[in-house]
Amino acid sequence: MHRQAYLLLLATTLFWGGNTIAGKLAVGHVSPMLLTTLRWAIAFCCLYALGRHRLAADWHLVRPRLLYLAMMGFFGFAAFNLAIYSALLFTSAVNASIEHAGIPMVIFGLNFLIFRQRVFAGQMIGFVLTLAGVVLTATHGDLRNLLRLDLNAGDALVLVAIIVYAGYTVALRFRPAVHWQSFMIVLSASACLTSIPFALVEYATGNAIWPDMLGWGCVLFTAIFPSLLSQVFYMRGVELIGANRASLFINLVPIFGTLLSILILGEALHLYHVVAIVLALGGIWLAERSGRRVRS
């Protein structure tokens, strides 16, 4: 049972890491806004075909919370990917992958600020270490860039995406008690619909790129693997070993993203990248370890 869970969760984080690579490969082959719209349109069609009967059964629970679910779909699915894919026009996939490590720590910070969850010394140290790793990556190893406010536009967009997704994750505690298929159908529909205006603006400004063969490959990959299979695999992994243990696998996303960037895209790995990975993942590990020790 554990082996099956581990394989499912490894595949999940591999797919999530691959999302950044697909976004980088898509540059020049399909524009970011159109990629996001097409991705969620395909994901919605697949999900609706599989779970429309489940949605009908859950509709009495979904309808009163439709605005909430629509906002979750926009921020968690559409806005996050719009920012990431746009960021990859200006920054490397290695940078974007490592900066993803900031998501758990931003979640930790938001939970403290909004819900006043207790904070312990180990968690604070872990937060600082992870933040240092993200800042080191965003400034390309030169902290003087932060003082000069000389931040790459792509890295700035990734930081915005991190904050957006962390907010989405924190807000998940208010989700209605519906089946995951119903939940995903409504969120993917919202993501598709709310990304259409961005795609229209992209077209009106002359920046739209209709996908070529490689572009369609990126669209299909992001629709099937990060959007569909990863969600199913992750939920099954949680069922097998529990949410706390399963959540630790998310720390592998920056690792897989970085390795895939080097292997597939041929991007360079600098010393500051290695230091940033050690700081970020070490910080997350320390915060998790501290939290688990206190709970036990």
Structural overview:
The chain is an all-alpha fold and 296 residues long. The chain has a domain at 2-91 and 149-265. Helices cover 80% and strands 0% of the residues. Helix 2 (32-62) packs antiparallel against helix 9 (180-204) and helix 4 packs antiparallel against helix 12. The longest helix is centred in the N-terminal third of the chain and has 31 residues, at 32-62. The radius of gyration is 19 Å and the shape is globular. The mean pLDDT is 83.
Fold topology:
Blueprint: H1 2-25, H2 32-62, H3 66-87, H4 93-99, H5 102-115, H6 121-138, H7 144-147, H8 153-171, H9 180-204, H10 213-241, H11 243-247, H12 253-265, H13 271-295
Helix pairs in contact: 1-10, 1-12, 2-3, 2-9, 2-10, 3-8, 3-9, 4-12, 5-6, 5-8, 6-13
What is shown here, in short?
The chain is mainly alpha-helical and 296 residues long. 80% of the residues lie in helices and 0% in strands.
Order of helices and strands: HHHHHHHHHHHHH
Termini Cα gap: 24 Å
Q: Helicity level, as a percent range?
A: over 70%
Shape verdict:
globular
Number of strands: 0
Protein name: DMT family transporter
Domain EamA: 5-138, 153-286
Transmembrane segments: 32-50, 66-88, 94-113, 120-139, 151-171, 183-201, 213-234, 246-265, 271-287
Subcellular location: Cell membrane
Features:
296 residues, mainly alpha, 13 helices
